[in-house]
Automatic annotation (TrEMBL):
InterPro entries: LeuE-type
Residues that span the membrane, as ranges: 41-63, 70-88, 154-172
Pfam (any one): LysE
Protein's recorded name: LysE family translocator
Keywords assigned by UniProt, alphabetized: Cell membrane, Membrane, Transmembrane, Transmembrane helix
Key word Isomerase present: no
Molecular-function GO terms, alphabetical: amino acid transmembrane transporter activity
Keyword Nucleotide-binding (UniProt): no
Organism: Pseudaminobacter soli (ex Zhang et al. 2022)
Domain of life from the UniProt record: Bacteria
């Protein structure tokens, strides 16, 4: 896969994964409550969950794009509409981090399955891959090597972003609990998400 496609994918993923959502909220809530000492199983599950969505999107959408062009376009525009909806929800979201429930016990297996559930059940992540990948990658030509390159790029981006969030949560708890800071983060994320929807619609 050419470098430019990987860089575009990485840049779009930075915007999407870096914006507060259910997974980030759960991660931040966990670190604020318990610190970073046992958060690795939760993080690992989040990364595996995103790799699953990426894999399903690459190979599933390749079949749709080749066989059902109209259905493919419908999926694309549903994705755009959902990104706009997410932008609106972010803009109007209440400024608190409650409700991101994961087990309070420190059992690594429970944390792992909680992280997997948060990621696999997150429609924001699913629709990001469904809406974005077809606009920057020729899915029909993605080989096994290309898929591995995408997964590797995804892993690097997510590790950098999620570890940054966890570190910030551990070192700046007062800031992350501030209603003003959360409102700014929500509205910045809403703006970037709406911009992503507009860019996808224009392609």
């Amino acid at each position: 896969m050419d470098l430019s496609s990987l860089l575009i994918f990485a840049g779009a993923l930075v915007v999407a994964a870096g914006s507060p959502g259910p997974s980030i909220a759960a991660l931040v809530a966990r670190v604020i409550a318990k610190g970073m000492r046992d958060v690795l199983p939760f993080l690992l599950a989040m990364w595996i969950g995103e790799a699953i969505w990426l894999t399903l999107a690459v190979f599933g959408l390749a079949f749709i794009a080749q066989t059902f062009h109209v259905a493919f376009l419908i999926v694309k525009w549903l994705g755009v509409a959902y990104l706009v909806y997410l932008a609106w929800k972010m803009w109007t979201a209440p400024v608190h981090t409650e409700g991101a429930s994961i087990p309070k016990a420190d059992a690594p297996l429970k944390l792992f399955f909680a992280g997997l559930a948060v990621t696999l059940g997150n429609p924001k992540i699913m629709m990001f891959y469904l809406a974005l990948l077809p606009t920057i990658i020729d899915l029909a030509s993605v080989s096994t090597i290309g898929w591995l390159e995408l997964v590797g790029t995804m892993a690097v981006v997510l590790i950098l972003i999620d570890v940054s969030w966890a570190t910030a949560a551990a070192q700046a708890r007062r800031l992350l609990k501030s209603a003003r800071a959360m409102r700014f983060a929500n509205r910045f994320s809403a703006t970037t998400m709406a911009g992503a929807a507009a860019a996808i619609a224009a392609r």
